[in-house]
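Record type: monomer structure entry
Structure origin: computed from sequence
Chain ID: A
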Amino acid sequence: MASVEPNYFTCTLGQAAQLKRQHGASKWKTVLELIDHQAQNIPDSPALGFATFKHLKSSQVSPYFLTFQSLSESSKHAAQILSQLLPQPKSSSHMTIGLLAASTTDFVLTWLGLMRLGYTVLLLAPQLAPPAITHLCQTLHITQVLVDKMYKHRARGLDNRIDVTMIPRYHPADPSTASFKQADKISDTAYICHTSGTSSGLPKPIPQTHFGVMGALYNFPGQGKPATFSTTPLYHGGFPDCLRSWTSGAAIWFFPEGHAPITGSNILKTLQYARDKSPSPIQYFSSVPYVLQMLSEEYGGVEILQSMDLVGVGGAALPPAIGDKLVEADVKLLSRMGSAECGFLMSSHRDFANDKEWQFLRPIDDPKLISFEPRDNGLSELVVKPDWPFLIKKNRQDGSYATSDLFEPHQSIKNAWRYHSRADAQITLGNGKKFDPSPVEDSILASSKALQDVLIFGGGRDYAGALLFPTGNVSSGEVIDSVWPQIERMNSESQSHAQITKAMLIVVPVKEGEKALEKSSKGTILRRQAEERYAKEIEGAYEHRKSSASKVVSDGELAQADLFKQGVDSIACIQIRKLIEQSFLSPRNEPLPLNVIYDQGTANGLIKYLHDARQGGHHHSRSARDTDIKVMQNLVEKYSNFGEIKAVSGRQPGKAVLLTGATGFLGAHILDILRNDSQVDKIYCLLRANDPSAAQKRVSEALTQRGMHDLEQSEQSKDKVVCLPCDLTEINLGLSDDAHKDIINNVGTIIHSAWAVNFSLHLPSFEDQIISTRNLAALAAQSGARFIFVSSIAAVSDSKAKPIPETLSQDSSEASPLGYSRSKWVAEQICDALNKKADSDDAIATVVRVGQLCSNESGVWNVTEAYPLLLSTAKITGCLPNIPNETLNWLPVEQAAQAVIEVSRSDQKPDNGKSSKTPVYHILNPHTTPTWTEMLDWLSSSIGTPEFEKVSPREWIKRLEKALSERSVGHLAQALLELWKESYGLMMDDVVTTKTTDDESPFDVERTREVSATIRDVQSLDRERLIQTWKWVNDTFKS
């Protein structure tokens, strides 16, 4: 994309060097020369303001606003006052003095006044502990520290050899009567800042020359420039913002530290105050990530950011979700990266209307100034070259500075780089794999208001974990539930060694008034101290995991228990498989199958399999067809006994509906239709949660993620939708007695849409889903409600019948081999067993088999579905497979939801004369057009979406494997690679792509057409919906 012209807010030192070569440099050589020059040439132009929005007596504060002339005169007055308190520095070498104060007008005047007296000033961050301040003072031979009232307590623990002097009260209106000799040279130090001490806990001083902080900048000509508002304190990078403004004759306003706490509400107040008082418009906003996060959550916060010409963020990584939210709201967000060692390096200043990639920094395209040197995993290290205008740290013989900052390149934008991690701040696992914990901690922390801090651990261990520090009195379960969706998303996009399992989430209570983690002055975690402080909790996490594994192996009952039910999730499966390959199998053994843990099902099954593998035995899965068919029949027999259930006679007249699966793709759309339906007066949503509030939050998030109003925004939902936490495996569904009774008395229809959609699990892992179906079916019998079981066409997809009828299957081999499919077949049989037991004219239970669903009318699909994941690979491969003989018989999800409701309201008559009493309906799209090839033609011709090449499936697999292996971060498509290789990897390059499939649907839908107008009138997928879906895929999946 075309570059954009810089301004004083975005101009890096590299750009400044180019501009100065073209237009010449400014004449001033020191900060004081700059101030005095501007005071002489633009005396009445605004220079500095502090937005002290609260009314205070005039004697209590310094002026809120200074012009360049008043700034110059006031600094001379401050120098005169200070000269009466401090010893004169020696002329031969400047004396260094410490400044520990709040970010106020007095801070600026003290700094300038001390420089006029010939002092070098160390800017001390108030967050430093007294030992750290003493260490800096000893390093720089400082014997004098100036402090203000706000931070006087910080000086009490200093070494007694350090004199502490209170900053005097200035009266800037009084004219200065003294003159000062100012002989500072350009090499002299303007001030000294310091590192945060993140790794060692002890900060190191970093001197800043006048040239570095001001001389390397470009003086943008002209007057009337927009002013900047900064939330960054002066001691934390506020002065670079100051001097960027002042060199170009612009003003800067600051949040008034100590005047009010920095909250979202107060930031809005100070901004409004500053805009009211400022002679020049405030159009630039400079901040750190946590400020933008506060504003993104504050009422009116996004709107005020939208009003800015530029919103800059730096100092740490902004969580991607926050940045994406702001950019989607048309906030002109740019990341800015710089350091005390090199100054302002680069930013993501760009064409905001056409380029939304706010995370990707755009460095100056000059290899003599900056380069990116390739490292492992597709990353590159930023190296600042000797010709860079300001470079006070060098670590190579050629005079360059290797920063240890690792970046990843943009897939299509030239010379655009996204920060990835620090090469020297990564956690190194026991297997040598590395990852940066900071972005992970930031993302988890940003995802939940129940947290005050997060610490990732795992150095030297086989896998990582996280300590979660809650805010207030929040239960461990609630904390983990609040962060788990975000961790799952991160796991899906991370390399396997950086993924975190739920078992390794440890909640650590924090005493009231106590800080969970010690942090540096920049807010970064002092990791070594934290790991020492919580060594017991970290060790306990690994011991618990180890003892749990030992207990499973030694306990006969647990050793036979299903691993999935014991909490072994897909991430744990990857970790276990890799650990086994590294420590148990020899190099001559074949690699373990990807799904070996779930395939073996139990600890004993896995042990037997590994024993055979070490002996060179065949690596066949335990889930042989005959074994699973026997398991299916056993499960049907086990859960079809409704002997104790007494079905009520007649049908429940209630207008309430009980719905499970409301957070799922289909369930959320069913809920949305029901809450707008006048025939329904209440909807009970049962789901896993700690309490009703958490349940409601999960349902609301599920709705908004799919483009629908949440429960609070929708007037129809406020009283109509009741979200209840439950455990469907318990007889009373884990409900309170009152809630259970309320449901029995009022619910006329139960729609059971909840199911674990995991195609890696084998059949026994779905036993809880089967128990839940049995319990809900029993509830329907007891209450007289209709029970609608949402099954899948996969339950009968291996049937040899053509078309497959809308009847209950009597042959368990008709289910596809997946555990998911077979569990649905078992649940259908349980529904039939209930109907036989009831022996009623109306069937209690009805089965609806749902086919392949697709996006809603807004184009929103499930990010974990195979088809949208496949389409998303175009971004990383530049191609899509031209799959032959593939028809798109997909049914839009909102139409499927409507059809389920229509079936639930039809007469549920048993099939007389047939072996089954259970009505079965097929909710699917019976059309066999369009084809996959037609869809690719439509997508490739759409405007404003990425271009892609149409290739053979085998070539696509080849490119996808290569792209995934070269990525520094994971991609959701990784999970389905093996499935796609099995399905498409053997298709030849010269395969014929003409349509050879039957024109008729393989599934009968005549019965459904009789009761569902939606299925009766359903049309083939059209171009418009598929284009809308394609746009959603490209907006949702990152490259």
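Annotation 1: Residues 623-852+893-918 form a domain with the Rossmann fold fold (CATH 3.40.50.720).
Annotation 2: The two ends are 17 Å apart (CA to CA).
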